[in-house]
Structures are given as structure tokens and as C-alpha cells.
Amino acid sequence: MGAFPAPDLTMTALRLMVSRHSAFYSPLIGGIAGGFFAQEGFEPSYAVVPAGRTVAELIAAGEIDVAQSAVSASWPFLERGEPAPLVHFAQINQRDGFFIAARSPDPAFAWSKLTAGQLMFVHGGQPQAMLAYMLHKHGVDLAHVQGINAGSTQSMMAAFRAGQGDTFHEQGPYPQQLEHEGVAYVVASVGEALGPVAFSSVAASRAWLAGADAPRFMRAYRKARQWVSTAPPAQIAAAEQSFFPDIDAAALAGAIDRYQRLGNWGGDASIERRHYETALDVFLHSRLITKRHAYDTVVVPPPA
């Protein structure tokens, strides 16, 4: 998942980049692992955004074609009165994908319990904003939670294994892996508690979307999204295993199963206006934006 390999010249290069790497983004990963992009004549490359860069910058520079992003990635540009270099044309997830894992099973888990210990959570940006908004809706102020910022996902995993923190906040399959190891137990889902929201999306430049590759991409993406929504989780996990070499197959399948049951990948591929409006509510609550940015400046319909 580093530098892009040399493309097969008999195929069309498709440079995909993600802001985060997890099973939560299986609609895109599955497009590669399930062969759906290849069926449309693409040679897909997959990479995680390098440290210090953003997918918006890389799209603007013409270094990538399509990215896993979020509608919120456009708002900093609009806040500065600038046009965003990317537009969002399909949803990946219509719910938050973070889970809460605890040191012990807790069938009676309540969100207020997070104030009684140390929560290792993903700090900054959308993950923290969604967590704060969800907790606010359930009568808890994130400011009253003793948080631990352990850095990257791998650093968080190592720190939790070493005994830091009482609860752990991350996307699947990482909490499920800790559960597989007997280190933690998944006790709650932020997405289930928060409800539908425009969380993650597929984005590109307007110029790329006007080209001939965009409809082919969308045909493949719809098939991949349908597949990860309905196929047996173990089958999807087996296809995606090479993307998660440090994750046990059962943990990966468990995360995919949970996302299917939550309905993360259900519904139409278009980004619904009502889900977009909820995302605005989330960011206004954390004061990450100052106004409600118009849906039509950020979202476009999927290419036909």
C-alpha cells in the first residue's frame, strides 16, 4: 500500500487512494479484491494517503483519480471562500464505522460509563466530531471523558495490548482483532447509536467525472457495493485478506458481518441530502465549520 506499481498498458490505470484503511471501506476494497474494476478494464492501484498530505491535494495535483473521502473534506475550502478541488459522487458508508471495545464483556454497556475510565479514541477531524456528537445526543460530554491519544491505529493497538486505557475506539476490523486476541470485547457501535449520516464517500475532480472512465468506474463500484452488502462475510474476508495481513480471518469476517447488519452499505449509492444535513449538524456541534454549506456545492449525482 505504498507507491503505485507500473500499470498494465492493456488496461486503464485507476489510481485509488483512501484516507484511512479499514474493512469499513470494503465497497472500494471489494471492487479490487472481487475483480469488479478489472471487469470494466481497469488496472486498480490502492494506497493510503501519505502522512502530511490529503486526498483533496492529490486530486488537485492530478496524482490520483478517485479517493475515499468524506463530504466534510470539502468544507475547509468553502470556509475559506475557495472552490473545493473534489466533489463527492457516491456514498461508501451511511453510518459511522467506529466501535467501542472494553476490557471485559459488558451486556449492560451505557455511554455514560465512558466517563468512569480512560477512552483511547481517534483524535481530531471527523472521527472525534462524530463521537462527540453521538455522545452529546446520549447526554454525555466528550470533554468529561478522560481520553488517550495514542496516535496511529497500529500505535493504538500496541498501547491497548500493553494495558493502556479501559476502552478502545476504532473502525473494524481492529476492535474485532483485539477481541479475537482476548484483549478486548466489542460492546457498542457509534454508528448504531448515531444513526444515518454522510460519513464516507467516493470523490474525484469534476474533470475526471466528465471523462469516459467515470461511468465504467460507477458500474463496477455499484456491483462491488452490492457484493459486500450481501455476500457471506467469510467469502468477502477471504477475498480481502491480502489487504489485512495482520488481521485474523475470523476477525475480518466479524467486522464485515457487523457492518452488513448495521446497514452501512445499504441503500442507493447516491449521497442523500438528509444524511448530508446530519453531517453538517455534527461539524457545527464541534465548531469545525461556521455555516451550513450547500449540498449542491459539495455533492454531485453518480455518473450515469
Tell me the layout of helices and strands:
Blueprint: E1 12-18, H1 26-33, H2 36-39, E2 42-48, H3 55-60, E3 66-69, H4 75-79, E4 87-93, E5 98-102, E6 118-120, H5 125-137, E7 146-148, H6 153-161, E8 167-171, H7 174-180, E9 185-189, H8 190-194, E10 200-204, H9 206-209, H10 213-230, H11 233-240, H12 249-262, H13 273-285, H14 295-298
Parallel strand pairs: 1-2, 1-3, 6-7, 6-8
Antiparallel strand pairs: 3-10, 4-10, 5-8, 5-9
Question: Looking across the biggest beta sheet, what order are the strands in?
Answer: 2-1-3-10-4
Overall 3D geometry?
Answer: globular
The total count of strands amounts to 10
CATH topology group of the largest domain: D-Maltodextrin-Binding Protein, domain 2
> What's the mean pLDDT score?
95
Q: Termini, distance in Å?
A: 30 Å
Number of helices, where a helix is a run of at least 4 consecutive DSSP H or I residues: 14
Beta percentage is 15-25%
Architecture of the largest domain, according to CATH? Answer: 3-Layer(aba) Sandwich
- Return residue spans where pLDDT drops below 50 for at least 5 consecutive residues: none
Q: What class do helices, strands and sheet pairing give? A: alpha/beta
Largest sheet: 5 strands, mixed
Helix content: 25-40%
General description of the model:
With 304 residues, this protein is of the alpha/beta class. The chain has two domains: 12-95 and 197-298, D-Maltodextrin-Binding Protein, domain 2; 98-194, D-Maltodextrin-Binding Protein, domain 2 (3-Layer(aba) Sandwich), CATH 3.40.190.10. It has 14 helices and ten strands. The strands form two sheets. A five-stranded mixed β-sheet has the order 2-1-3-10-4. β6 (118-120), α5 and β7 form a beta-alpha-beta unit. α1 crosses α10, α5 (125-137) packs across α13 (273-285) and α11 crosses α12. The longest helix has 18 residues, at 213-230. It is globular. The model has no long low-confidence stretch (mean pLDDT 95).
